[in-house]
Amino acid sequence: MEDKQQAHIVLIGFMGTGKSTISQLLAKRLDCKAVDLDFEIECLSGQTIPELFTAKGEVAFRALETEVLLNSLHSRDRLIIATGGGAVLAPQNCKVMQELGYVVALKAEAEQIISRVSQDSSRPLLQGNVQERVYKLLEDRKHAYDFAHLTIDTTNLTTNEVVDQIWNHFH
Ligand code: S3P
């Protein structure tokens, strides 16, 4: 990354840590555009994420995820990119995020994640017993977000306080 103040900001973190919401607020604050990779994948495929998982499987989903991530990172405009929680599973994705963006990891306590993700059923990896699935995936991905330039624990923060903390790193 050449200049922190010009680099894309890439939000990573487990499902339900607030990446999409924070990306919108931060984009407004920094007067740039927010991009949500899940939304871009849905536009590109013409399917919702659950439909895509059912029709083509996770491998096809991950390929599209990498494609939209790379497209966004190569944009000339500065973007605030909200990634999906699994975008970090490909080591190559992490490398390019680190090189072309300022990577911010959002963390939250498991109970808070469970309460947030239980409110919608759009996540194929959390079908069945949500609580069990979250604990299992949190364990599997324990160190997946460690490569970030900055990590923020959002557990006791309001969305505006999270945005303030990120903002402070640029000023
Ligand atoms: C996934 C996270 C989801 C979405 C897909 C897979 C994951 O995005 O990309 O369901 O593997 O963690 P959010 O993190 O925005 O929920």
Please describe what this structure looks like.
The protein has 7 helices and 5 strands; from the N terminus they run βαβααβαβααβα. By secondary structure, the protein is an alpha/beta fold. The chain has one domain: 3-Layer(aba) Sandwich (Rossmann fold). α1 crosses α7 (159-168) and α5 (110-117) packs across α6 (130-140). A 5-stranded parallel sheet has the order 2-3-1-4-5, with helices on both faces.
What's the layout of helices and strands?
Elements: E1 8-13, H1 19-30, E2 33-36, H2 37-45, H3 49-73, E3 79-82, H4 91-100, E4 101-107, H5 110-117, H6 130-140, E5 150-153, H7 159-168
Parallel strand pairs: 1-3, 1-4, 2-3, 4-5
The chain binds shikimate-3-phosphate (S3P).
Shikimate-3-phosphate is lined by residues 15, 19, 38, 49, 84-86, 123-125.
How would you sum up this structure in a few lines?
The protein is an alpha/beta fold.
Judging by the overall fold, what is the CATH architecture? 3-Layer(aba) Sandwich
Rg of Cα set: 15 Å
Question: Could you name the CATH topology?
Answer: Rossmann fold
For the record, the CATH class is Alpha Beta
What is the terminal-to-terminal distance?
A: 17 Å
The average pLDDT score comes to 95
Structural class: alpha/beta
How many DSSP-defined strands? Answer: 5
The backbone outline, from C-alpha atoms, is globular
Helix content: 40-55%
SS strand fraction = 5-15%
**What are the secondary-structure elements, in order, as H or E?**
EHEHHEHEHHEH
Put simply, the count of helices is 7
- What ranges have pLDDT less than 50 throughout 5 or more consecutive residues? none
Q: What ligands does this structure carry?
A: shikimate-3-phosphate
Looking at the chains present, what oligomeric state does this protein adopt? single chain
Number of structural units classed as domains:
1
In the sheet with the most strands, the strands line up as: 2-3-1-4-5
Per CATH, the superfamily is P-loop containing nucleotide triphosphate hydrolases
Largest sheet: 5 strands, parallel
